[in-house]
């Protein structure tokens, strides 16, 4: 079911100031949606700040050349955040908001959520969600249309990047004809796809390349080669000269193996525990698997976080993934 954009337009008219928020470990859909929405709202005369719990990864800073995104605790203190409306983009889960979750809970400001992920917590917010949308960035384009805001190059670059990355550069099954029509509009507004691709994928550090080699060397195949899994421990980042965000998209490399239908990567976090990323290009539902560990997402891609050592986390997670894979293959 699509978003009621008339209701959204009416609600936006009530407020003069906004703070935009997205999830921890922000990716391109989170950042692109925030930056695009910020410009949309400024165009209709609103005052806008973007404040995240985590700093923008160095590899994605090209999306915010003016440095508009603030970081809680580094650039702004919780008591200094005052606004009419808190708008949460690309997540509906308390666990994904990090320290900004406490700010949202304590704020008397109205809350709005714009998201495309299945499942949600009670954020005491008005929800504008479309589970069929391939990216929150696409919803921001629709919001611009609802508010009568023409697309500009500066808003279109982050929105193009949001959609392109959340569809695996248009490889995922979530891509529709409407996706390409929207992308065409963003290109008409000034996006140069080869430049975005270059900024994303042709600026790797040597440490990132080494880390990906390590990830691939650890890849294991199970269930007749249909399930792939690998891992990164937190000590590997320093050993390889890599950054934590250098694991982004690494899981998709394992799906290039012939016959692979699903994959999971365990990524050690500097503060402990493991971030899990699930991918499927078959019948296994990643969202259903991730929800068993307090996470979520979509059928083709989902994530979660689990405390424990590598052995403990793998011991909990892999049996669940194996069972889901066997069910998907009709072997259960």
Tell me what the structure shows:
- Strands 3-2-1-4-5-6 form a six-stranded parallel sheet. Strands 7-8-9-10-12-11 form a six-stranded mixed sheet, sandwiched between helices.
- The chain is built from twelve helices and twelve strands.
- The chain has two domains: 5-200, inorganic pyrophosphatase (n-terminal core) (Alpha-Beta Complex), CATH 3.90.1640; 206-329, Diaminopimelate Epimerase, Chain A, domain 1, CATH 3.10.310.30.
- The chain is 38% helix and 18% strand.
- The mean pLDDT is 94.
- Helix 2 packs antiparallel against helix 5, helix 4 runs antiparallel to helix 5 and helix 5 (153-166) packs antiparallel against helix 6 (177-188).
- By secondary structure, the protein is α/β, with parallel strands linked by helices.
- It is globular and about 55 Å long.
Keyword list:
332 residues, alpha/beta, six-stranded mixed beta sheet, 12 helices
Outline the secondary-structure elements.
Blueprint: H1 5-12, E1 17-21, H2 28-43, E2 47-52, E3 69-71, E4 85-89, H3 100-106, E5 110-115, E6 126-129, H4 136-146, H5 153-166, H6 177-188, H7 193-201, H8 206-217, E7 220-222, E8 227-232, H9 234-240, H10 250-254, E9 262-268, E10 274-280, H11 286-291, E11 296-297, E12 301-306, H12 310-329
Parallel strand pairs: 1-2, 1-4, 2-3, 4-5, 5-6, 8-9
Antiparallel strand pairs: 7-8, 9-10, 10-12, 11-12
Query: What is the CATH class of the largest domain?
Result: Alpha Beta
Largest sheet, spatial ordering of strands: 3-2-1-4-5-6
Rg (C-alpha, Å): 20 Å
- The CATH architecture category of the largest domain equals Alpha-Beta Complex
Shape label: globular
Contiguous helical run count: 12
* Mean pLDDT figure: 94
- Note the main sheet: 6 strands, parallel
Question: What is the CATH H-level superfamily of the largest domain?
Answer: inorganic pyrophosphatase (n-terminal core)
The end-to-end distance, rounded to whole angstroms, is: 32 Å
What's the order of the H and E elements?
HEHEEEHEEHHHHHEEHHEEHEEH
Number of strands: 12
Fraction of residues in helix: 25-40%
In percent terms, what proportion of residues is strand?
15-25%
Whole-number tally of structural domains? 2
Query: What is the CATH T-level topology of the largest domain?
Result: inorganic pyrophosphatase (n-terminal core)
Low-confidence blocks of residues: none
Helix/strand-derived category reads alpha/beta
């Amino acid at each position: 079911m699509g978003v009621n954009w008339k209701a959204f337009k009416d609600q936006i008219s009530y407020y003069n100031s906004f703070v935009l928020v997205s999830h921890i470990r922000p990716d391109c859909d989170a950042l692109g949606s925030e930056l695009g929405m910020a410009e949309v709202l400024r165009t209709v005369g609103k005052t806008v700040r973007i404040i995240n719990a985590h700093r923008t990864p160095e590899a994605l800073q090209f999306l915010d050349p003016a440095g508009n995104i603030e970081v809680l605790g580094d650039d702004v203190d919780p008591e200094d955040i005052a606004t009419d409306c808190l708008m949460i983009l690309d997540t509906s889960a308390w666990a994904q908001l990090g320290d900004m979750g406490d700010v949202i809970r304590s704020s008397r400001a109205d809350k709005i959520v714009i998201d495309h992920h299945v499942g949600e917590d009670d954020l005491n917010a008005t929800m504008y969600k479309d589970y069929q949308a391939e990216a929150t960035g696409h919803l921001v384009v629709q919001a611009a249309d609802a508010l009568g805001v023409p697309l500009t190059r500066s808003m279109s670059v982050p929105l193009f990047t949001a959609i392109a990355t959340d569809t695996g550069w248009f490889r995922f099954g979530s891509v529709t004809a409407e996706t390409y029509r929207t992308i065409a509009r963003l290109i008409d507004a000034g996006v140069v796809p080869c430049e975005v691709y270059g900024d994303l994928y042709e600026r790797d550090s040597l440490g990132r390349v080494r880390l990906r080699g390590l990830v691939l060397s650890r890849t294991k195949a199970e269930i007749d080669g249909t399930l792939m899994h690998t891992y990164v421990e937190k000590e590997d980042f320093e050993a390889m000269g890599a950054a934590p965000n250098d694991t982004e998209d690494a899981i998709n490399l394992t799906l290039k193996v012939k016959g692979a239908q699903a994959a999971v990567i365990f990524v050690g976090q500097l503060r402990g525990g493991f971030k899990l990323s699930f991918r499927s290009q078959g019948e296994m539902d990643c969202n259903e698997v991730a929800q068993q560990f307090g996470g979520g997402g979509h059928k083709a891609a989902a994530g979660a976080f689990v405390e424990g050592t590598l052995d403990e986390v793998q011991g909990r997670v892999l049996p669940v993934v194996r069972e889901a894979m066997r069910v998907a293959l009709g072997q259960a």
